[in-house]
Write the structure tokens for this entry.
Amino acid sequence: MDYLKANTPGKRVVMIGNEAIARGAIEAGVAFSAAYPGSPASEIQESLCRVADDLGIYVEWSANEIVALESCAAASMAGLRAVAIMKQNGVNVASDFILTHNLVGSPGGLVLLVCDDPAGLSSTNEIDSRNYARFADLPLLEPANAQEAKDMSRWAFELSEELALMVILRSVTRISHARGTVTLGKISRRRPKAMVRPGDRYISLPPTPEHDKLHGKMERAQKIFEGSPFNWYLGPREARLLIITCGTGWHYSREALKILNLEKKVGILKLGTTWPLPERLVTRHLRHAKEVLIVEEVDPFLEMNVKTIAAEQAGSGVRIKKFYGKRSGHIRGEFRPGVGENNPDIVIRALSKITKIKYPRPPKRLRSLPDIEIPRREVAFCPGCPHRASFWVVKNALPLDDRGGFLVGDIGCYSLGTGRTGYYLSRTLHCMGSSLGIASGFGKLDRFDFEQPVVVVVGDSTFYHACAAGLFNAVYNRSRFTCIVLDNSATAMTGFQPHPGTGQDARGSPAPVVSVEAICRALGIEPRTCDPFEIEQSLDTLRELMEEGGLNVLIFKRTCALLEIRRGEGKEERVYIDPRKCIGDACGCARHCQKFGCPALIWDEGAEAAAIDEVVCTKCQACLQICPKGAIRVEKK
């Protein structure tokens, strides 16, 4: 049974945090959900897609995050409960709308569900999206486990409707991807008729009255938060040392106190409503403390807000001698404070330093590890990945052109172009679609004696997400560069979600195909299309376009190897090394095939020759064109 849609209140099930968040939205009666995929947030929308037909929920993978939020705002304006889902990078994309919609509100519950990625485990940054809540004057909720993630998700819609204001629910990787026991609640069957009522207007001008109303809503939110069940205190009544924490910090702090045997001496104030802070609740506990340790990730967001309350309440019995946290350097990992993920050891070290209690060493039997060196796992393109062949083509084309050309990178699987698997080709990596704007700038530097060819790589999903404006700008201003669209038929990096070019919608139903080629032709660009596994043809085409100059688009079209396997489209042939032709280092090729970097192409130390790992090999056959001696062969089955 799929417990996401089971209307069995009281049933206890195990879910990952993202599934629990989706379940909370379902229990709240969410009617409309729009998202752009990105780890650690992707599974929330995937969960909703799984049950959308059965529960009558509209779901879509939007072209980008601002469109997702705008679409959800429309549903909310029509009186429906709606949720927009994204990772922290997406909040930057959606911020323009966030900072205007906050002024007008809407009658239907609207939740902005953000999953942050401390340490940038699958991101180009680790920005703390909580800062947007303070910046935009929006209520902020932070769950600490799967159960709370489900309950907060449900309550966020109620809070949004009560305030007629968007509510931000912020998760992090260790909440979203951790499993926990969840007690199911009742699924709401509410389905109001969607309608914009006569006289309804959602206009943020003039700003002053609307801004004043927004502050009034936040004052109401603060009063509600004072009695929130998501805030609680654990520990001695008059603890002199107080931990104030939120999210993952709750578990880390409890574990640290247990290990150091401080549970009867140190109090923990756990907050789930972190903006605006419940000031009376915080003040009540600050009055009995002399020292405060604040545990959170990533920025000292909670810390600075608590310090503000302490300063304002200094005349009413709050006498904190010392604050510890990010600012003091007590909550820090291997880097400086405000960088990376937290863990129990970080909190233990902080408490040990503050209390002068020695950190107890684990028993000797737990400290004895085998005396072996564990090899570091390198990030690489998958076996059979078309991007490897695409980067190989660019790697060879640039030096053959001999004008010092370089590659401008973008966000996707091909972000690995910054490392060894992409031959260190990418010179820039910022946010989605930024490559087109950067290249547009480089392409106008000819008047300053800039003569280097500029090549851009963007993925198909990225092209639809954020490249249109950059391409419009390049056409309008007659900028010169070559844009390579790496079309692998999916949003591969985040789990193969569909996009406007795949011909499928979020539910797997047929959808119109938005053609990259047609978009280019509409702009007056005649695109060229190649299969990157046809290496010589692709190389010749890229060189031709670079020599031609002007603004060009080259589409490297090849389905992602993992997607082919999912569809059962894998090849049956066997790819192998002919031992009569591969004579190892005696060949003089300097192990040329190893430079291609495919994980299936290995070096057999025993045979002193190249070999194919047939367990890993996807039979893509791109490597057949790499060996100068033709030693890589195909055996038909």
